């Protein structure tokens, strides 16, 4: 279990992610170890897909992907490098206990790297209600993190 360190929340989340508004869905980083990262997200009206006071639960996969991005982005931040870019490939397993997340709800997102050292990675991820610590969603998330992003993009154009 990763130690929660809420002083990490003082780091602006946009310094840890390659994303920009309005696609930044996380509030802050609250825990980081070699293989695990923990972030918080508060459901609010400015979020994409927010409608009738809630977002659909499938937004959880993007919260997980962004927490994985923070997992790579935090060490880059400490080394004064740009956030690392990776691509969500999908999830062979996603289980959710609820169809929606309501406005004002604070979700704790945990991502634990289970395999991969180079370009292909998999994380075991969970979403918890930060108020009552109840697990709401669980998924295995596959990520592609190119060693050289610009070279990969140039080759993909061909």
UniProtKB/TrEMBL annotation:
<protein>
    <recommendedName>
        <fullName>3-hydroxylacyl-ACP dehydratase</fullName>
    </recommendedName>
</protein>
<dbReference type="Pfam" id="PF22817">
    <property type="entry name" value="ApeP-like"/>
</dbReference>
<dbReference type="InterPro" id="IPR016776">
    <property type="entry name" value="ApeP-like_dehydratase"/>
</dbReference>
<dbReference type="InterPro" id="IPR029069">
    <property type="entry name" value="HotDog_dom_sf"/>
</dbReference>
């Amino acid at each position: 279990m990763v130690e929660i360190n809420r002083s990490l929340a003082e780091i602006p989340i946009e310094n840890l992610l390659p994303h920009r508004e309005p696609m930044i869905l996380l509030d802050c980083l609250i825990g980081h170890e070699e293989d695990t990262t923990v972030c918080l997200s508060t459901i609010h009206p400015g979020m994409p897909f927010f409608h009738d006071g809630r977002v659909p639960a499938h937004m959880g996969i993007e919260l997980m992907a962004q927490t994985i991005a923070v997992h790579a982005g935090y060490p880059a931040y400490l080394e004064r490098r740009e956030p690392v870019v990776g691509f969500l490939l999908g999830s062979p397993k996603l289980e959710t206990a609820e169809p929606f997340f309501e406005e004002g709800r604070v979700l704790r997102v945990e991502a634990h790297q289970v395999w991969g050292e180079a370009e292909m990675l998999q994380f075991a991820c969970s979403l918890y209600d930060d108020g009552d610590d109840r697990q709401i969603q669980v998924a295995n998330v596959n990520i592609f993190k190119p060693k050289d992003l610009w070279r990969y993009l140039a080759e993909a154009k061909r």
